[in-house]
TrEMBL record:
<feature type="domain" description="ABC transporter">
    <location>
        <begin position="4"/>
        <end position="225"/>
    </location>
</feature>
<keyword id="KW-0067">ATP-binding</keyword>
<keyword id="KW-0813">Transport</keyword>
<dbReference type="GO" id="GO:0005524">
    <property type="term" value="F:ATP binding"/>
</dbReference>
<keyword id="KW-0472">Membrane</keyword>
<keyword id="KW-0762">Sugar transport</keyword>
<protein>
    <submittedName>
        <fullName>Sn-glycerol-3-phosphate ABC transporter ATP-binding protein UgpC</fullName>
    </submittedName>
</protein>
<keyword id="KW-0547">Nucleotide-binding</keyword>
<keyword id="KW-0997">Cell inner membrane</keyword>
<keyword id="KW-1003">Cell membrane</keyword>
Amino acid sequence: MAHIQLRNIKKHYGQTEVLKGIDLEINDREFVTFVGPSGCGKSTLLRMISGLEEPSSGTIFIDGEDVTREAPADRGIAMVFQSYALYPQMTVWENMAFALNIDKQPKDKVKEKVELAGKMLKLDHLFDRLPKALSGGQRQRVAIGRAIVRNPKLFLFDEPLSNLDAELRVDMRIQIAELHRSLSASMVYVTHDQVEAMTLADKIVVLRDGRIEQVGAPLDLYYHP
Ligand code: ADP
Ligand code: ADP
């Protein structure tokens, strides 16, 4: 269950106002994509939701609770970035188990969660590999696996596929859509790729110059970048 409400979110860096009053609702289990020209504020808005940065003003509610000043770790959110940021000296298994071990979860629980995520992401034959021995798509799947094992109620993706070649992007897009169907989580997904935005989203948010220009279901929008 994750229901997100953004109320009049503004963000400025020095004199520059990057977000100019964002009001947005993300429903439980909804898949929302953020699109818009480079520099329009997509990543900044994602960082506000994640808690990596605080807005200059405005309020963020998750499941009715004001989390505007809460740390990222307290929001039940997982972020997946385009740079995979895997630990290079750890195997796939260790990368995926790491956060759970830090959290002192029981060994059998950790095993169960990593095995399940490994199956979902077709990584189970790669558990003993180091990241350097993986393809780009496999690394991206490990990054998603690390997020999944923590059962987040909300996933934030910041252009997760933009480093992959065209064919892999299509594969991964299908896998992310499958994950969304099988996990009971909401997803917010920033992308430059119009096809990704259209095929994944329940709702597309078009940003322009720090404001929401349009919001709607893919078929109700005509998006021209
Ligand atoms: P997008 O993700 O849509 O490409 P960003 O959210 O990354 O856009 O950036 C929006 C604007 O905010 C850009 O003009 C960018 O230069 C500016 N910006 C982002 N982060 C900072 C920062 N930490 N300090 C100053 N300006 C920033
Ligand atoms: P430790 O460092 O205490 O040995 P590990 O993280 O290596 O802990 O292993 C914890 C559990 O995870 C063990 O029960 C082991 O069976 C399982 N495990 C570790 N690596 C793998 C793997 N590559 N494939 C399947 N299970 C694994």
